[in-house]
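Journal club prep — side note

Before the paper discussion, L.F. wants everyone to see what a predicted structure for a comparable chain looks like in token form. Sequence:
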Amino acid sequence: MKSAAALVRYHGSPDSLRRAIELCDGFTGLTPNDRVLIKPNLVGYDERYPMPLFGIFTTTRIVEDLIVLLKEHGARSIAVAEGSVYVKGKDAGLTTHQIYDKLGYPLLAQRHDVELIDLMQQEFVTVEAEGWEFEVARPALEADFLINLPVLKTHNQSKVSLGLKNLKGCLSNKSRRNAHGADHSLLQRLSLFVERITPALTVIDGIFGLERGPYHGSIAKRVNALVASNDPLAADCVGAALAGLDPAEVSHLVDFAGRHGRSVALEAIELRGDPLDSLRQRLRWDTDWREDGSGPRVWDKLGLETAALPKYDDTLCTGCAYLYGPILLMLMSAALEGDAAATEVLTGKAMAPSGSAAHTVLVGQCMIKANARHEAIRHAVRIRGCPPSFDAVQKGLAECGIRVDLDAYRRLQGMVFQRYQGQPEFDPSFHYLTPRA
């Protein structure tokens, strides 16, 4: 028997989501006494260097729509839970509750009597799947009805970041880091979270879609689509196809399907609602890179020939990945001022020095551990931290003769916001809840 998934055009709230959930019988098995946990994607936010939220964060409007529909169905115990990227003592983003406050989630709690949970502050339980032990926040394991609420987002390591990957936000920082390693595949481990964190319903918020995600340099598009299914694999396969990708090219979907004797082909899914072709939009998942992988092609236009930021690999974990885009922009802004030196910047856990650079920058503890004494390095610059701070990155690049003006970088980052200003389809109220008049 085929799994059912609904695909509907978003026309307004909350009726569009209501139609999607009804089409896939999404609330099947939900009782008034169940503890409902909603897991959106509020991946991380840095107020010093902010980014537009379109396609990056689950829209607050869809979160509220879902709560309204759950209340209509009789649900009495509802919580919203996320574990946003934050490292205590570092300038590495806001805490989950600070992000809740910024987006107006306390109004949701007040209006609808829901609880707001920071999964990073909860007890973690060690679980095992396919020989890998990882730590999961207890509320995600103990919910009676878990609703996974990701965004329609591409990802530069995993091609898409949909339901299966969104469950990574339920893991401890230690387990998130361990998902990336030089001796195992991130893509295979992305398929394992759902083996122990089992959503009763997955809803993909595709009001906005993101290409070249997940962070800085990404481009949002208005897609106006919602996907819903009780089957997490079916939801992600439809989501991948909605983004213009063949699910068979998304490794973690293929891995999960293979373990369970299933197919990722759309023909194996009973798709209900609107035709896929009426909503599908191609969302590119990667930047155009030089053939040697030393940097994006746009660097050639800027004349940035001597600096190298080798293309990220899947050993780059979330903390340092948050720095990758800013480092790229820092090098671009420095190049515009003629301050680039013969420098290579290495990230992740597996990269090795080229032997041809005058300066080799090792970003983060993992890279330092892997290469600090490598004989091919002429001059090692160690940027310590897990993850390092922006200030540490700035100082490290300065040691190579690359003078980065963080104010100039902030202005460059601010230009990203201008892309959406004055365009009515990019309405900030989708994300920022305000008091009713």
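L.F.'s comment for the group: Residues 298-417 form one domain. Keep this in mind when we get to the figures.
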